[in-house]
Design brief:
Helices cover 72% and strands 0% of the residues. The chain is mainly alpha-helical and 83 residues long. Helix 1 packs across helix 2 and helix 1 packs across helix 3. Keywords: Transcription, Transcription regulation.
Length: 83
């Protein structure tokens, strides 16, 4: 895989793909090259696994006041303000 294809795999794994990238990914997946397709799918999977491990390792318990602030913001139909 080239650098652009790796970047596309990371974009897919992050779920932040736009229309242009989507077309490029579809072309890659429709490719006649089964090795390229397999490498791309593996890169997406490996990236998702790495992101999941990172999220688990850096997870933090939210402050107790967050629930009350969120519920109050929803009730007021206003976006919550980060503090």
């Amino acid at each position: 895989m080239n650098e652009r294809q790796i970047d596309l795999a990371h974009t897919v794994a992050l779920g932040s793909i736009d229309d242009d990238d989507h077309r490029e990914v579809q072309e890659l997946l429709d490719s006649e090259d089964p090795v390229l397709r397999a490498e791309f799918v593996r890169e997406v999977r490996d990236t998702k696994e790495a992101l999941s491990a990172l999220a688990a390792a850096t997870a933090a318990t939210p402050p107790p006041s967050l629930r009350a602030r969120l519920l109050a913001a929803v009730a007021a139909e206003q976006p919550p303000v980060a503090s």
